[in-house]
Amino acid sequence: QVQLVESGGGLVQAGGSLRLSCAASGIIFRIYIMAWYRQAPGKQRELVASITSSGSTNYSDSVKGRFTISRDNAKNTVYLQMNSLKPEDTAVYYCKAGIAYWGQGTQVTVSS
Question: How far apart are the C-alpha atoms of 70 and 99, rounded to whole Å?
Answer without folding.
Answer: 18
